[in-house]
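Async update (no meeting this week)

Hi team, since we skipped the sync, here's where things stand on the single-chain job. The sequence we agreed to prioritize is pasted below, unchanged from the tracker. I ran it this morning and attached the output directly underneath so nobody has to dig for it. Comments welcome in thread, and please keep replies under the output.
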Amino acid sequence: MSASTRYRYMLRNFDYLNESKLRRTQTRLAIAAAIVIAAVALVPFVAISQTVTMIEPGFGPALVAVHQAESVGATPNEIASLVALLNKALELNEDALKLNGPGEAQNRIELISQVDQTLITVQGQATDLTALASHRSYTNKVLNYVWGIIAAVVGTVLFAFTVSFYRNYRIKRTFQMRITRK
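Output:
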């Protein structure tokens, strides 16, 4: 075997070895990426929800009302006051759950009535906020469409004037040309 043949053989084997190592590395990276993606995708399914037995039954409709107000476009400042009221109701509910003695029954009833009043207030404010935010969202949409129409009309008028001025300039230049015989 000559030196050039041996050199070509070595190069061919070197390329083959590099390709096989590259394939193995790519396979390992693909498996690692699949494992990471699967782990990230499964995280939301592992979340543990809060038990409903510990929360007063009136919290559900209040939370739904606050969520509806937020979904129709209420601002964070508006939602913050509702969240503060919900937190107050949760604290009162926790305090009521701590009172288990027979002499504390009256205090527990008072705290539960305060929780109910707070939740009714939250629901009322959330309903009002939902109507207000919905109206504001609708008004903003209408205004955006109107501004779009105005911008289109202004753009069309500007384009028409530009074309008109350009044509007038071309006509004027045409009549100013001197015709010479060759």
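Quick observations from my side:
Residues 105-176 form the longest helix (72 residues).
Residues 55-132 form one domain.
Reply here if anything looks off.
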